[in-house]
Amino acid sequence: MDGVMQAPGGSKEDTAEGFKYGGWMGPYFDKVGGNEMGIQMKKTAALLLGRRTYDIFAEFWPDHATEAEGWPQVNKITKYVVSKTIKNPSWVNTVVIRNLSELQKLKNSNGPDLQVYGSSKLVQSLMEQDLVDEFWLKIFPITLGTGKRLFDNGTIPASFKLFKSRITPSGAIFAYYKRAGKVKTEDIA
Length: 189
Description:
This protein has four helices and six strands. The chain has helices at residues 31-42, 51-60, 100-107, 120-128, and strands at 46-50, 78-82, 94-97, 134-139, 158-167, 173-182.
């Protein structure tokens, strides 16, 4: 609930900055949450990932992109990774984005909607540059107090409108928001 998004899936997923609570999502990820996540993943037509999340995904998904794992199309779709250092990505259908202007050009193109998973530093940059159209938030009934947060340094004043939500039996909330406009800082008391 405190916006921490670091290492939800496993203890060794992301231990940067001494984070020791990896795998925190597990006890709250029930069948209803799994089904909702499956719906989101099936809608994925293209991914936009930061380097660390890309590396985590590229290590797992090439050998697990099956119907049983819930993401059979992940190897077939385009994966855009924002990185200044990747030279020859090994994961099929990967396109490297080197800078902000390439990212803005991609946003303005006629391609499919891009979904971002994890990628905390990238998300901060996207918010800072006003490149986020929707948030598909997953709010779990736990606070960690430390770790990488969704709404941190790159957050700008912006308004969003809830268009869909679902609460799971474990108390997790799936909340879908669309951009509703800019917020003028002088309007905030």
